[in-house]
Amino acid sequence: MNSQTEIDQAQNQTGNTQPTGKWRALNETWWTALQLGLTSFGGPVAHLGYFHQTYVRRKQWLDEKSYADLVALAQFLPGPASSQVGIGVGIMRAGLWGGLLAWLGFTLPSVLMLMLFAYVMQTFDPGSSGWIQGLKIVAVAIVAQAVLGMAGKLASGPVRAAIALIAMASVLLWQSPISQVAVIALAGAAGIWLFKRQVNEENASVIRMPMSRRAGLSCLGLFVLLLIGLPLLNGMTHLQWVGIVDSFYRAGSLVFGGGHVVLPLLENEVLLNGWMSKEDFITGYGATQAVPGPLFTFAAYLGVLISGVPGGIIATLAIFLPGFLLIAGTMPFWNSLRSNPKLQGVLTGMNAAVVGILLAALYHPIWTSSIHSPLEFVIGAGLFGMLMFWKCPPWLVVLIGALAGQLFL
């Protein structure tokens, strides 16, 4: 009797109305996530708004405080924040299988669209079509908006701005496969001392999860094992598919601060490995803005260009896997982790560094590969204005950019 009362109280606290059966819960989770994957345009911040409207207000699967805590957890961890929130809701609803279906439903539509686009792209010369050049200019506008938005939140103040500028200079002047990893790690270490803070836990709600700490530790252990073991395996085998898994898993493990940060990390992996040209890379990033769903599905486009449809599937699974393992592994420990000021200092330093890394990517390869004439600058400025000042949806900016490129370039 007491056990049942505790369960009822936990459900009332989280606002989680449990379904009558496991299969119904899984079915609901899948179809709800698929609908979001087909309609969620606008990037990670917009996705969180769609999730709130669907999961909190319409479905009432969790309450406001639990949702806010889950968003905070996803933003604390590396990985695609909006996808991790969706995975977290799926886990709360139907366990680990629910988290997997929530991810698959939200991700699958954009993966299929971008794989199709990559297949079509293989029949074109990227340098010969005006609309391709238009997509590259769209990427300039998109990333410039992301840099400004992130700088205001994550690199404000003299200390964080200094970290961002040092990070930018470091990755531009030190072209190495490990430069970005080293910069992020050093910024996190500096953050322990530079950003000591006290965490106010008053009025903090408690996230209750249907996962044990042992299961969480297993997920975290697998995350670390793959992060260490894949580079070793790649060095011993030199197989292309192992290299793809290694590169995309590492990129997915180091994304702090927002989905756009995956751009310089993937650029560092893909271009230095000689898998494609800068033009192909930037064209795909521009096209990614036109589809719904998470920005991480850019990996599907890249994987197809590297090794066909199997490469697209492998790259997509590899880049999302660390974020899945981290959100699943950390949720049972979140209430303890958020009270640690040293960990928050590490996160603050890392977030400032990724702003600088994204700023470096805006210059190279995006700007240097896309803006070569006054006309291209004018088009880019107009597209940036549409995003920044007139709040046009990204898919509309993509279409106008491609059309402008076809007509004028």
From TrEMBL:
The chain crosses the membrane at residues 30-51, 100-119, 131-150, 157-174, 180-195, 215-236, 312-334, 346-366, 378-404. It is a multi-pass membrane protein. One of its GO terms (cellular component) is plasma membrane. Residues 1-21 are annotated as: Disordered. Pfam families: Chromate_transp (PF02417). One of its GO terms (molecular function) is chromate transmembrane transporter activity. Its main location: membrane. Residues 1-20 have a biased composition (Polar residues). It is found in: Cell membrane. Keywords: Cell membrane, Membrane, Transmembrane, Transmembrane helix. Signal peptide: none annotated. The keyword Disulfide bond does not apply. Belongs to the chromate ion transporter (CHR) (TC 2.A.51) family. NCBIfam families: 2A51 (TIGR00937). PANTHER family: CHROMATE ION TRANSPORTER (EUROFUNG) (PTHR33567). This is ChrA protein.
